[in-house]
Write a structure and sequence with these properties.
Blueprint: E1 3-9, H1 14-27, E2 32-38, H2 49-68, E3 73-76, H3 84-90, E4 95-97, H4 98-109, E5 113-117, H5 123-132, E6 139-143, H6 158-173, E7 177-180, H7 189-196, E8 200-202, H8 203-217, H9 246-249
Parallel strand pairs: 1-2, 1-3, 3-4, 5-6, 5-7, 7-8
Length: about 250
């Protein structure tokens, strides 16, 4: 069964999209085509509520374009699950956020696990997602004090900080597994798993395999209730082109 899965980086840093796309392709089945795209507008990285809000319009445009081009599922490659609910309401294909996917995957293999994210400002948003997804009794969230873009700079010391925080999670949290709390960490999972001797989950890979499963099972987002298609109404000003139906038709 041939599949086409869209992976959207909702920030505007193309080099990060390359890392994300490579991580998705590394676990994709031979029958799966991964299309990785970078948002054409918005912040260079998503760190906090303000960045997240302004990343959503560009994200929705990429998902709508991907669906028109034949994508059978889409992955939002930001651990904040940026714009996830809006995308599910807009699209007619399954939409998966990498935080939800990673937490679900971790729950299959560990009773207690720790999410290691980037900076302190991401801590509360990710803790909110842990609560939303029903994992508050099993998951702790830690911040490694790493700006997102520092993950691409070998001289930044970011990887060392990440390792140190994982070591503390194993020692202090008694973590049985680690969830990497940023899409920019997607290429580190196997290396860190071998180093620490416990499961390390990358949300991009977890989301890709779950997208394949949904396509194979013929399942998509319910259009009853919360994710029903948006009601027709005019949008004004800079958001005029986002009025319901306009994005999908472009």
């Amino acid at each position: 069964m041939n599949m086409q899965i869209l992976v959207v980086n909702p920030n505007t840093t193309a080099s990060m999209t390359e890392t994300i796309g490579a991580a998705a392709r590394a676990v994709a089945g031979a029958w799966t085509k991964v299309v990785a795209v970078t948002s054409s507008m918005g912040p260079a990285s998503i760190e906090g509520y303000y960045d997240e809000a302004l990343a959503v319009p560009g994200l929705l445009m990429e998902i709508a374009a991907g669906e028109r081009a034949g994508a059978q599922a889409a992955i939002i490659a930001c651990f904040d699950d940026t714009g996830l609910d809006a995308a599910r309401a807009m699209a007619n294909i399954p939409i998966i956020g990498i935080c939800e996917a990673a937490l679900s995957m971790a729950s299959f293999i560990a009773q207690r696990f720790t999410v290691v994210t980037t900076t302190e400002r991401s801590l509360v948003p990710v803790e909110g997602l842990v609560q939303r997804y029903g994992m508050a009794g099993r998951a702790r969230v830690r911040a490694a004090d790493i700006p997102v873009l520092a993950l691409e700079d070998p001289a930044s010391g970011a990887i060392g900080k990440l390792r140190d925080e994982i070591a503390r999670a194993v020692e202090e949290d008694r973590a049985e597994a680690i969830v990497l709390g940023c899409a920019g960490m997607a290429d580190l999972a196997h290396r860190l798993q071998a180093e620490f001797g416990l499961p390390v989950i990358d949300g991009v890979g977890a989301a890709l395999k779950q997208a394949e499963a949904l396509i194979a099972l013929g399942l998509s987002t319910s259009k009853r209730g919360a994710y029903a298609s948006p009601l027709a109404k005019p949008y004004r000003g800079m958001l005029k082109s986002f009025s319901p139906g306009a994005v999908a038709a472009e």
